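Self-study notes.
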Amino acid sequence: MTKHDLLEHLAEGGRADATEIADSFGLTYAAAAMALLRLARQGLFHRYVDADDGRYFYELSKRGHARLAFFRHHH
């Protein structure tokens, strides 16, 4: 799973949590959570807590959309 893979996945799905990413890419929960947090810290994803159950969800940020456009144009 690459940064590009995660950006594409969130662009298609709108939002995701670490469990969904782990299941989609065949990763452990810890690996998925760390990858998502890393990209959130880079400003590519917005991270927020679901008020109902306390899970963290991630969505593409404006910067994430720009990075995805770059990947799509150059690959």
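Second protein, same conventions, sequence then structure:
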Amino acid sequence: MRKNSRRSWVAGALFISLFFLWGGCFNTFGLFFTLLVKEFGASHFAVSLLTTIVLVLSGVIGPVAGSLLVRIGAKYVMGVGAAVSGPALVGISYSSNFTYLFIWYAVLGAGLGASTWLTASIVVTNWFRERPGTALGFITVGMVLGGTLTALLAAYVIQLDGWRIAYRVLAAPVLLVVLPIIFFFVETAPEGLSLRPSSTVARDDSLAGC
């Protein structure tokens, strides 16, 4: 019962983390696209590169972060990623030219690569070895639902106070909610599960009934 309770907390923490990190930090980009084009006098192509750099860097950082889970633990890898992503949104909101905007989006991509889908999927499959598909589906819902609901919030703030304030509002839950949740509830794997650098999860027969 204790282990079941613990893994439920881990799944819930990952759901909330992906809700605000990928859902809020990336899936809301469409709301800002036209506003960024107008603000910086950039082409549609240039602004589209912002999402490209996020996807490329998150894809590059993801495997590196995944390998670090074994060495230093998920709470530190994902925690650092979240700690980078939140300030990146604040940096975006203060960008005075397109170069700074691009740099901050690159930082955001690195942070999301360390704290979202790949690392979260490794953690959740470590904890839910019997039904990993169900658990992965659950945290994926967090990403999708986060993009929907945070988009509504961001749209409201944009109308009320502008796009720069909207970015800061999206950063707030990352720093105030996601970071504490990761550090208090996220662990790479249940105690006793053997992990090796050469393999993300090395199955332990003694835990076959987890």
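Instructor comment on the second fold: Helices lie at 2-25, 29-40, 44-72, 74-93, 98-115, 117-127, 132-161, 163-185.
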